């Protein structure tokens, strides 16, 4: 793609670029390898650079080194990242579980993840979501599947007229005033048979966080109650926030919306809307109208859907500061946030766009929560093989606030909070594997991304030169195989094409042929250094190489062109 036309311009830019992913990366880093063993089972938004080392930190250790006696070209095993997004749904056998619209409930020492189950086929152009699934974890890295907690397909919702629309939900825990027992409440949305066919908000309860949940038997907020409306699906994506104010009064807020944003208070029973004005009926209107459900978009720049309510809390659990509303912004969906001093009586103040559209999904939906002493941001993309906007996967990263309470930008990440990010650079040359700068387009026609140019020059955006090594997709059990995934374009891999060019591309079809094209055998560096060379599995005897500043497959006769050091930067 325009490689030769861009080359001269790129070279000039590269000469002025900053030191790749981190200023702490050593310039003479060696490849990290371990001896082979028995196989183990946007417009672009500004992204923070990779963390810098402090003066006390030692330089980054290489991820290993070949046996000094290793023969050039001899197979060796590179260390793979110990963690890779997404957090659930992965499989070495190819039986992936796709799920979207993540929501997280913290109950004691356990996090519960609730997702809508995506069962659309690769070629389907719409949502097919028959039920809600639940996973649990005590460390956010290792998740246990808890099963189906509520099913549209199996008729758990009696008032729905659809069996494949288990759209976004959120679960919370609260004490039932009638019994004094703690119950779990699952707020969800679906098409309502009794609400002129419109999307409506429902609620179901369970004595355990893993269900199954029993439905109220009718919509909590019917699509015919809210207004004004602009579509039959304005009433989707519920989110709940519960807190006790400075006077000791508990408030239970329910918010939702697509195109329009609604918020109300719930009664103590958690299954009915509070009649704020005491007129005996539930009404919808603007701030100051005296309505029970407030329709308020002012300050919510390009509000699309997926609202999530959040407020910071101190070490005692007391909430402080403004209310945060995280939401999907525009199309393709970015992640953004706004703040307000009151959920019922204040206009919103827009914060910023936090995350550009993901590289693999048209929608996004977040969960923001505190756990293990940190604040976390779970979102979805389509980064698993054959993933897309109707076959999604939940991912995790850490969320950070600045000194004024603003939310820092959140780059999409393949390695997540615990993975290893590496640079791949020539052992005897200036080439650094990088993908060219590109903003994830807002146009659906730009996807899937199949031909992003790869260069061997340092980019001006350091994250473009950051990679995550994962088990070889062609055979995950063979630890001498590796696939090279982009850190800031998760789901896109270095891919060998039939004409021996190399691109960054999504695995859009999950075929064995694509898996082979995105897999390399790591071998001792052909130039005899303590580095590594990458032999294509799809094209044996051909090696990832630097040729005139670009990447190509070559026969390895120029050993310097295809010998690299692999150095961790995170």
Number of self-contained structural domains: 2
**Would you tell me the overall average pLDDT?**
89
User: Main beta sheet, described?
Assistant: 5 strands, mixed
Name of the CATH architecture of the largest domain: 5 Propeller
Report strand order across the widest sheet. 11-12-13-15-14
Calculate Rg over CA atoms. 25 Å
Instruction: Please identify which CATH superfamily of the largest domain we are dealing with.
Output: Glycosyl hydrolase domain, family 43
Structural class: mainly beta
For the secondary structure, the number of strands is 34
* Tally of helical runs: 2
In one word, what is the shape? elongated
CATH class of the largest domain: Mainly Beta
N- to C-terminal separation? 31 Å
CATH domain fold name of the largest domain: Tachylectin-2, Chain A
């Amino acid at each position: 793609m325009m490689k030769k036309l861009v080359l001269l311009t790129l070279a000039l830019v590269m000469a002025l670029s900053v030191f790749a992913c981190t200023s702490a990366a050593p310039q003479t880093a060696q490849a990290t390898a371990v001896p082979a063993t028995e196989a183990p089972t946007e417009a672009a938004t500004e992204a923070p650079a990779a963390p810098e080392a402090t003066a006390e930190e030692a330089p980054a250790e290489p991820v290993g080194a070949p046996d000094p006696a290793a023969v050039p070209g001899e197979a060796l095993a590179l260390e793979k990242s110990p963690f890779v997004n997404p957090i659930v749904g992965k499989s070495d056998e190819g039986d992936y579980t796709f799920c979207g619209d993540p929501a997280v409930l913290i109950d004691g020492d356990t996090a519960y993840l609730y997702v809508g189950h995506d069962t659309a086929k690769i070629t389907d152009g719409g949502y097919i979501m028959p039920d809600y699934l639940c996973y649990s974890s005590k460390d956010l890295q290792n998740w246990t599947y808890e099963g189906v907690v509520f099913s549209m397909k199996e008729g758990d919702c009696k008032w729905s007229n659809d069996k494949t629309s288990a759209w976004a939900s959120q679960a919370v825990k609260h004490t039932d005033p009638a019994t004094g027992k703690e119950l779990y409440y699952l707020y969800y949305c679906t098409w309502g048979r009794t609400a002129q066919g419109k999307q409506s908000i429902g609620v179901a309860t369970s004595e355990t966080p893993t269900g199954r949940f029993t439905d109220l038997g009718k919509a909590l907020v019917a699509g015919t109650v809210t207004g004004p409306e602009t579509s039959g699906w304005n009433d989707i994506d519920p989110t709940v926030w519960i807190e006790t104010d400075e006077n000791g009064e508990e408030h239970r807020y329910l918010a939702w919306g697509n195109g329009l944003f609604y918020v109300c208070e719930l009664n103590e029973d958690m299954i009915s809307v509070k009649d704020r004005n005491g007129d005996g009926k539930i009404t919808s209107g603007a701030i100051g109208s005296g309505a029970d459900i407030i329709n308020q978009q002012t300050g919510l720049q390009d509000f699309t859907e997926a609202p999530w309510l959040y407020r910071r809390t101190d070490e005692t659990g007391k909430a402080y500061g403004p209310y945060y509303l995280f939401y999907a912004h525009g199309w393709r969906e970015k992640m953004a946030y706004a703040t307000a001093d009151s959920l019922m009586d204040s206009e919103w103040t827009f914060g910023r766009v936090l995350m550009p559209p993901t590289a693999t999904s048209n929608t996004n939906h977040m969960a923001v929560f505190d756990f293990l002493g940190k604040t976390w941001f779970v979102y979805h993309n389509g980064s698993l093989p054959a993933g897309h906007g109707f076959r999604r996967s939940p991912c995790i990263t850490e969320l950070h606030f600045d000194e004024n309470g603003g939310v820092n930008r959140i780059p999409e990440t393949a390695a997540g909070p615990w993975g290893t990010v590496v640079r791949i650079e020539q052992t005897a040359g200036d080439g650094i594997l990088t993908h060219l700068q590109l903003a994830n387009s807002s146009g659906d026609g730009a996807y899937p991304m199949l031909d992003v140019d790869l260069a061997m020059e340092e980019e001006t955006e350091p994250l473009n030169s950051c990679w995550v090594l994962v088990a070889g997709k062609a055979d995950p059990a063979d630890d001498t195989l590796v696939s090279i995934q982009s850190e800031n374009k998760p789901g896109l891999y270095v891919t060998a094409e039939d004409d021996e060019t190399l691109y960054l591309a999504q695995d859009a079809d999950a075929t064995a042929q694509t898996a082979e094209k995105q897999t390399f055998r790591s071998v001792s560096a052909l130039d005899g250094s303590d580095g590594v060379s990458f032999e294509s599995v799809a094209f044996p005897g051909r090696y990832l190489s630097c040729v005139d500043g670009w990447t190509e497959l070559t026969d390895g006769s120029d050993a310097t062109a295809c010998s690299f050091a692999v150095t961790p930067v995170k």
